[in-house]
Amino acid sequence: AKADGGGIFRNFEPAFEQEQLRIRRTEQELLRALERGELTVLYQPQVDVETERIVGFEALVRWDHPTRGRLLPGVFVPIAERSRLITRIDAFVLRRACADAKLLTGVTLSVNLSPINLRAAGIADDILATLRETGFDPNRLELEITESALIDPGAAMPLNRLRESGIRLALDDFGTGHASLVHVRRYPITKIKVDRSFIMNLGIQRDAASIVEYVVRLGRSLGVTVTAEGVETREQLRFLRAFGAHHAQGYLFSPPLPLEAAVKLLECQRSG
Ligand code: C2E
Ligand code: CA
Ligand code: CA
Ligand code: CA
């Protein structure tokens, strides 16, 4: 920092340094969080659009910070991705979710995989080893990846290997990246998840309905499952039904739940 501190840097530099400091501190705390078991996993139901019955759960990580309280992934996943801690976080979530999901019988388990991890050598082997060790059926697992993970041609090998082992592959946040269609055809993608930003505007913005209708039709014609994320209203669900979307996920059905609550919800559905 400049000693006399004139001009715009006077305000900018300390803020920048503070931000760097905050990131470094969060990194150190994250490492400790992994060691002390401060990370937990919640499960959000995904339902069949027609019947509204649960077909799967998405595992979503949370950090129970000793002083800052429960933190959302938006606060720490980007920092973890910079420092490679994301490898350990995703490995932890996968292992925990596979162990937990033995209680979530008869439905799919979806787990997020950071693009950083898809690039790591031996990623497919590591994932398959975790499934073996936890005794989890690969046919019940779905990995959610984003379009940015597919820009790298190196993604083809691990993805093909995972798909050949029975694991399903969902393209997350669909519609927010580039060249998505090409990727759905080039990789063994089995599902697209239409991004919440489109669902949010159904019934509000005329264009949103056209876009979602188009994406659903496209997905169906490519033979993949179409899931809508962030469904919050009955009206949105009506649009999705009319367009022929397969699955939906969102607060209309349930927020992400602790394992026990997710198990109860599933049991409730079975008995009711
Ligand atoms: P995502 O994969 O798109 O997950 C869906 C996010 O939308 C979740 O936020 C979920 O709680 C939220 N959501 C679900 N239904 C609704 C709704 O009706 N309305 C609104 N407004 N939001 C809804 P969350 O749990 O904060 O996760 C944010 C992002 O963090 C995820 O977005 C995903 O990209 C990432 N993430 C979460 N868990 C993991 C993980 O274990 N590994 C990695 N690499 N990323 C993760
Ligand atoms: Ca996801
Ligand atoms: Ca998503
Ligand atoms: Ca999203």
Please tally the helical runs, counting DSSP H or I stretches of 4 or more residues. Answer: 12
Which structural class fits the helix and strand makeup? alpha/beta
Each distinct ligand: ligand C2E, calcium ion
* Computed CA radius of gyration, to the nearest angstrom: 20 Å
**Measured distance between first and last alpha carbons:** 66 Å
Shape: globular
- Major pleated sheet: 8 strands, mixed, barrel
Helix-strand sequence: HEEEHHEHHEHHEHEHHEHEH
Mean pLDDT: 93
The oligomeric state is single chain
Low-confidence stretches: none
Helix content: 40-55%
- Strand content is 15-25%
Strand order of the biggest β-sheet: 1-2-4-5-6-7-8-9
Instruction: Give the beta-strand count.
Output: 9
Overview of the molecule:
Strand 8, helix 11 and strand 9 form a beta-alpha-beta unit. The chain has an 8-stranded mixed barrel with strand order 1-2-4-5-6-7-8-9, surrounded by 5 helices. The termini are far apart. It is built from 12 helices and 9 strands. The model has no long low-confidence stretch (mean pLDDT 93). The protein has 272 residues and is of the alpha/beta class. The structure holds ligand C2E and calcium ion (3 copies). Residues 58, 112, 144, 172 line the site of one calcium ion.
Using brief descriptors, characterize the structure shown.
12 helices, 20% strand, eight-stranded mixed β-barrel, binds ligand C2E, single chain, 50% helix, 272 residues, binds calcium ion, alpha/beta
